[in-house]
User: Fold these one by one.
Assistant:
Number 1:
Amino acid sequence: MESCFHCGEPAGAPARRALVLGSERVFCCAGCEAVACTIAGAGLGGYYQTRTAPASRPSTPIAEPAREIAFPGDERGEAALVLGGVRCAACLWLIEERLRRLPGVTRADVNYATQRAHVAWDPGRTRLAKIIGALRGIGYGAFPYDPSRAAAQEQREQRAALWRLFVAAFGAMQAMMYAFPAYVGDGTLSADAAQLMRWAGLLLTAPVILVSCRPFFAGALREMRLRRIGLDTPIALGLAAAYAASAWATVSGTGEVYFDSICMLAFLLLGARYLENAARRRAARALDPLLGVSPGRVPSVGAVVDVAPGQKIPADGLVLEGLSSADESLLTGESRPVRKARGDELIAGSINLEQPLSMRVTRAGGDTRAAAIARLAERGAASRPHLVEAAERVAHHLTWIVLVLAAAAGTSAADPWIAVAVLVVACPCALALAAPVVLARASGALFARGILLTRAAALGPLDRLTDIVFDKTGTLTHGTPQVTRTLPLSSLDADACVALAGSLERASRHPLARAFPAGGGEPLEAPLNFPGEGLEARVAGRRVRIGTEAFCQALCVLPPAGPAHPNFDGAHVFLADERGWLAAFELADELRPQAAAIVERLKLGGLAVHLASGDRREIGQSVARALWIENCTGAMTPQDKYAYVEALQKRGRVVAMVGDGLNDAPVLARADVSFAMGGGADAAQLRADFVLLGDSLQGILHARRIAARAMRLIRQNIAWALGYNVLALPLAAAGMIGPWQAALAMGASSLAVLLNAMRPLDAEPKWKASTSSFPSPSPSYS
Amino acid sequence: MESLYLLVPLSVALVFVIGWVFWRSLEAGQFDDLERPAHDILADDD
């Protein structure tokens, strides 16, 4: 199957084709085609040559604001826009160019790190709504953003970190110059000149110690106050001891100086920290908008709030008035807008797209769904895989060993430089540093895919997975019944029957009623529920019944409808009025469209796939047949499922369970790894390690890929750090490693581990582009 | 050799001057986005 020219998704068959940029291109949907045409038409086709990642799929149909809307800040002619749908740097070029070519726009700058655009325009010539509309036309979401204090704080911290790094780097470079003559030592350097070099080194290293090394000393002080030995203590001790000893040597004119080593160590360690922070910031950026839902003003529960288009919805609530759509991609990973009409639920943190909405707040502040998801994600990051926990324990013990060994080696050899070398070389920074970065990045990468990781400890077993058990309802299938067949039994055609049934079932609370579209239809009079049987109402003066065959038959004496539909095997619902049968409907819980492809991929990945269904045996088996699942058990109670997973585990299998997260909490907790579909339900109530917020099974594949890469990086890092410490510690204690070698080895080791941790986690394999076209699944299993 | 007595203090002074210059450009926001300018060269602005 061909993939879409714009977004790279499989284009489906038959694919849309259009002449864009001089040749015929394939598109998956009208939205992609429209966006590509707009980009090409604006003379920005260069985007397709320079981009490094396919674009995100635009919302369909591309919604233009229906009328001119005044955004806050419109009259100022300046705004910060948060951008959505940005995939790579070429996107930013495209956005910037598009903005700059708009009439009336005077300035447009896009920042890659924060994914924000700053736009200035002439209020007399254009409006913010037009600018946002133009961006939407090329496939990006944008909404005005009030720069909060948190962002300013982050910027200050980042500048400070860069400043410290620069001072250390420049100091290291220059201190090396002054140390060089002493290292060469060919005797041409006079004693006075050597002393001059030492003084220069002393002077130059002072800012490195005072400015650059502040975080280490502050950390060591904090650890001392908490009476807990951490990673900063040995580093701070080593740096302080080395500087003090070198300074004394300079002043007294005897002994060795190691100013160059101090600066180099500071530089390498700060470099590692800088990279670590950058990686964390990037990983946390996905979660950021959730946490900063409404800085400052929090509306109270029960209040009525108006939300302008482009604004963030400030709290959870219900629509009172207005018809619009909301971008909930932050919370679900689903990029398509969701329609919002009176009575629909709004989620805090999502963005109102089209029209003004009036809402009543039901949950605000820390009670909102977004806040709950953010808390879950934070809790998830607090748990660690067993491997990481073990490494942290080792690191903690190692710190003590290092301190004791340093003191012992220093005093026994009566040489403070041996103590310094031990302190510096053996600090288990690398051991404790690199795993958390990988975990934070994994959590961020998963969230970007619409997967909420609530327990990072599950990453380990997910990597070693051997079996995956699906609960049928709500996972492989939609979980809600759908009308699969309509059999008209009178002159009324099928669509009219479904519409009539829909208007009847509006009055019903039966689960099967949800299968019918809640269309407008004719007004109902005197609806009457007969529990377990059906519903009767008057429509246009006639009595109409919907429900079981017997219930409808009793309306007036009707012949059995049975012979007309011999092949029905799902649930049946009948529709009749006073004059006779109108229609019979077959309802079934349909398979999700990607289910077959996902099962196939999991099997290709070497997993045994099981189906544990609570439904009748035949239904379970027909699903298993349609999906090629060999291990299928039907009619299982929750206890049976629990026992099933337990039995697999006793045979040494590592089992993942995929459920809807509500009814199967015990078995989800029993399995080594659990997935829950987070589509409809409140994600915060789901007890699972991974919540698929976007309600798409594809998330399982993404999670497996990301977990495998993350665990590989963690294993590599721990192996490297442990090996390094085991090798370096005895050498330093024996006095075979000088302070400068210790500084170099230690700094380089930390940096190497961090650079390894920064390798891509979610890079799709190169071959994926050609194989991503799924074998087309058979959508029904009748 | 005597030139060292001039050059070494001069180099120390120079280090502090360069540090000050860097501080100025840092505070002016030149280093706030380190990723995007690298990609600008690939885009042809006209």
Number 2:
Amino acid sequence: MKDKKSRKEKIIEKLKSLEEIVKKFENNKVNIEEGLSEYEKAAKLIKSIKKELTGIEIKVEEIKNSYS
Amino acid sequence: MSDNLGIFQENIISVSEFNSLIKDVLANLGVFKVKGEVTEFKITQNNGVNITLSDGKANLRVGGYALSVKGIDLIEKGMDVIIEGAADLYVPYGSFSLTAFSIEPVGEGSLAIAYRKLKEKLEEEGLFALEHKISLPKFITKIALITAKDSAAYSDFIKILKENNVSLEISFYPVLVQGSKSIESIKNALKVAMTFDFDAVVLIRGGGSLEDLKSFNDEDIARLIFSSIIPVIVGVGHEKDESICDFVADVRASTPSQAAYYIIDQNNIFLDETVSLGDRIFEKIKINLDSEMRNHHDMILSLEKNIDNLITRLFDKVDTYERILKSFDVKNILKRGFALIQKNGKKILSAKEIEKGEDIETLLHDGKFNSIVKNIKYFD
């Protein structure tokens, strides 16, 4: 079944998750074990968000070129 | 008739009976056209006509009621005329006369006088006035053409239209333009043409003398043209020729060819105006379109800018989070020779948190080990 959520929604959700992890670290609310796992999770989110943003950037360029 | 006269020939009759009898005989003779010179001409206060017509050898007294004698107002002493009328006898005096029905001038001199008189009369009545002229429609598509069949006027008119590729619906009314029957012929054609929905009626003929152009100087035809609710174009003869119909026409063309050019010009003006209007509308649309395109372009630029900004902001945000997270990356710290110490799963940040003999866990970047605290030393 296809994910019905839009790309924008997905990015925002991912950004929200990333923000929560960053806050946890900043507030010193993670122990070492959890910290490692959260850090890994955050790294994955960053990679995914950057990938999606790059995809959007390419798509926008394509649209610009189509009518310029 | 001779039997009736026989009865009287055998009997004696009175003067008045005789005069009445002759009057009846004369009445039965029918209508005559008598030609001669007007040597005496007078109209009485009671509108009685009193003319003496002469051919040099004999005189004829002509009477009648002026208001019912056609052409009487164009006559003057000395003119050669043809008077149409019936023979009559005035019973009380036994005087013989011709009762006139109509009078028409003959010969160039008489025709010229009659032409001048009719022109003055109609001009005075306002038949030539500009305010009575009807304008041609903006675009002419169907006309009635009144002229002689196979005439030069007809050929010239059609030729000019063809040469200029004019597409016209032409209803042709062939008429006699010269001779005794021409007036009736033209009148009938005009009357019929005026019953249809033409854009214009075109009456044309070639040039000629006053005698030739007599029907185009006829009062009835002039009045018929004046009464038309369809614009009438008249084109007679050569440039120098002029006729009463020319003056009364809504459009006076100097020749039949010129009549064709009037129609061509009228249609060309309309087409030029239409093309010009089309150009103006197109220009207006183009200006609006250009403006819309500019607005559209500006909107696209603004949209592009906003999208670019949004993407940049998101990238910046992610980069910031990444930087923050990196500062919390424990592995990087441990790789630099540091170690983390935990007791019962909790970080130990101070030497005061442990006691001698306790089991502690030490984490390095690539592994961990447990140890027992043997000794504790506090720094100052």
